[in-house]
Design goal:
It is a single chain. The chain is mainly α. The protein has two helices and no strands. It has one domain. Helices cover 65% and strands 0% of the residues. The longest helix has 24 residues, at 2-25. The protein starts with a helix and ends with a helix. 0% of the residues are buried.
Length: 46
């Protein structure tokens, strides 16, 4: 059960880093084509 928390924390850190990079290099009105598998980060980008 403690392992799930660590996984969730790692996802949160990764999502935050990715979102910062996207905000730095992309305009807010640009679109990103996400061709990967469906995941919870995709929902954050919408």
């Amino acid at each position: 059960m403690g392992n799930n928390k660590t996984i969730a924390e790692n996802h949160k850190k990764r999502y935050e880093s990715t979102l910062l990079m996207i905000k730095k290099y992309f305009n807010q009105n640009e679109r990103i084509l996400d061709v990967g598998v469906e995941n919870s980060f995709s929902e954050i980008l919408i």
